[in-house]
Amino acid sequence: MDGSVPYLKVPNALPKTPATDIIIGYATLSDAEAIAKIGAETFSTTFGFSVSAEDLADFLATTYTTDSTLADMKDPAILTFTARDAAGKILGFVQLVRGLTEPCVPGDDATKHAELRRLYVDSSAHGRGIGSKLIATVEAQAREEGFEQLWLTVWEKHPGAQKLYHKLGYEKVGSTGFLTGASVQTDWVLSKAL
């Protein structure tokens, strides 16, 4: 996005969401470095212990660099949202990806599927309801664009994330492999009708 899109105010419709000072909006190209940093730090902290240092380094070098983040932001199939505090600091991000599906996602028309990808919140901001607000924003955008199923993948050994997604109405519909360097791990595929 070029920065001309105004920030979205997400209503506090979700229960127990204390993040009233959080503003959700479209990411701009100038956000790429901060998004890449949060992505790399969060991925490393959450998953880094489960793969070799070489596999982690390979994955980060292709996925969470400023250049790779900019490429995502320039891709018309990917829409990136950020969560900012009142001072404008980026605390988290998420992506809506159009045009992709998994065979296990319900529904007859795969063109009606969209993916919720890379929900990451800076560790300093955990527990403030930011992840739920980012998810609600992606769901609203997907509905507005006419998608009927929103799907995502979550690591099979990440019960905290699984709990959040289940609480918000996502159900396990299958599993898929996730490649980190040369290491293949199992992710659950979760889906929600919009």
Largest sheet: 7 strands, mixed
Q: Largest sheet, order of strands side by side?
A: 1-2-3-4-5-7-6
CATH homology superfamily of the domain at 23-152? Gcn5-related N-acetyltransferase (GNAT)
Our estimate of the beta-strand percent is: 25-35%
- Give the N-terminus to C-terminus distance in angstroms: 25 Å
The CATH architecture category of the domain at 23-152 equals 3-Layer(aba) Sandwich
Please, how many helices? 5
Low-confidence stretches: 1-18
Question: Radius of gyration, rounded?
Answer: 16 Å
Task: Characterize the structure shown.
The protein is 31% helix and 29% strand. It has 194 residues and is α+β, with helices and mostly antiparallel strands. The chain has a domain at 23-152: Aminopeptidase, CATH 3.40.630. The two termini are 25 Å apart.
Would you kindly provide a brief summary of this structure?
The chain has 194 residues and is of the alpha+beta class. It has 5 helices and 7 strands, in the order E-H-H-H-E-E-E-H-E-H-E-E.
Name a few traits of the molecule.
seven-stranded mixed β-sheet, Aminopeptidase, single chain, 7 strands, 5 helices, globular, alpha+beta, 194 residues
List strands and helices in order, with pairings.
Layout: E1 23-26, H1 32-47, H2 53-63, H3 66-74, E2 78-84, E3 90-98, E4 113-121, H4 130-144, E5 149-155, H5 159-167, E6 171-180, E7 183-193
